[in-house]
From TrEMBL:
The lineage of its organism: Bacteria, Pseudomonadati, Bacteroidota, Bacteroidia, Bacteroidales. This is Mannan endo-1,4-beta-mannosidase. It comes from Proteiniphilum acetatigenes. It comes from the Bacteria.
Amino acid sequence: PYPGQVSADDFVRFSQSPKMLFAGDDFELYK
């Protein structure tokens, strides 16, 4: 979300969950 958006804090907490994987994360899925 863009800075100041009402759900920005919720998204930050959500994105820090160890269960979440994002395309830009550094994980070795195919190595």
